[in-house]
Amino acid sequence: MTKRNQRLLILVGLVLALAVYINLPNSPGIHIGQINKDFTTRLGLDLVGGVQTLLEADLPEGAVIEAETMRTATTIVENRVNGLGVTEAVVQQAGDRRIVVELPGETDPERALATIRKTGRLEFVDFSHLDEAQIFELVESQTTIYTDDGLTPEEVAQLQATLPLTDTTTLTESIPLVARQVFHTVMGGEELSTVQVQTDPQTGQYVIAFELKSKGAEVFRDFTTQHVGDTLAIVLDKKVISAPRINQAITDGKGMITGNFTYETANELAIQLRYGSLPIPLKIAEVRTVGPTLGQDSLRKSLIAGAIGFTIVILFMTLYYRLPGVVADIAIIFYALLAFAIFRFIPVTLTLPGVAGFLLSTGSALDANILIFERLKEELRSGRQLLQAYELAFKRAWPSIRDSNIATLITSGILFWFGSTFGATIVKGFSITLALGVLVSLFTALVATRALLGLVLAQWKSKDHAKWFGI
Question: Whole-model pTM?
């Protein structure tokens, strides 16, 4: 065996060991120093169920939407979705006014979509002139209140004049009397620097801890210093969500929003506040829900189809190419392990089209082996020695292998661009798995197959080439 083949075998062995480690069902991942990497199999919407929605800018059809505005909206939606804990979510812009959102495994789509669409306008509102009963009424009723946020004194006076002052007006009798005034907004949510869910060490309840920017911290310090004992309400989208009392001056710009939160409600609110307001309003243009039962059935059928396909491939290569075919079968199994390990490492979200791309790339791996083996048979027919024929087969098959795979990679790039530009996630997933599969197939054909076949031929003694090589 040549030193080159020895080096290739060592490389193949190391890569195989790493692939098996990554593919272990309960792989512990890699946690060394600052490196913390876990390995998971991410399945798409059509394999595990969930919800897909198409969000559209809620603006007149002829309205011009700047590209940067849509990019910002897409980023905010993606951040909010990731904050929901839907780790396999797909969020991408589709055209110049739409956003595609896929939430695999989501069991409560209405909750998720409500969080995504909300503008999340937060205000700290002065309730110092209200008594406890009035504050309780506003918190419990969840009535929309009026604030002077962004209004001039003249506009505030005009708004105040239009508000009903008694309960006698039939059209507004459901509005609490206390809500029929304009409240003063001390500070807006744009002054928030960080927001996160924590557990109050004293009560054990969930709270939302926040930290303010320098300007907001200064405003907060001045107000809380002058209003110790008063109430500063937390208002989201003009509805009171919490009304804490100022027990002492807050001078460091750090505070907590308290309320009757569960972890889910606290996390939803934190997401809305953390990622700010959407630059444009969004509406749901289309919703498609895939049940988990249908997704599991698709996954089961995909696995069965894949197993059948691999079995047929292995039988064909063994029966037609004999000894090299057996080596190729081993290399194909190595290819499958390596490709799946890469999908878990990145990770790539596997969908039905993605699985199809992966299986199609298996054909590319076979194409390379077939070209090599046909060249090997030609060299043996011309009277070459076995090891010489082996070297020439790889050398002369390389141009054809290179050109065909480059063409496939170019096609994958075009499909990826199309999927990214027009929001066709199905096409995008197919192109990614196809391209990765092609690259892995090149490695297995030119490295794994070459090293394994070289190892076998170096020890081969039989001269019956017709029987063992299908000549």
Answer: 0.61
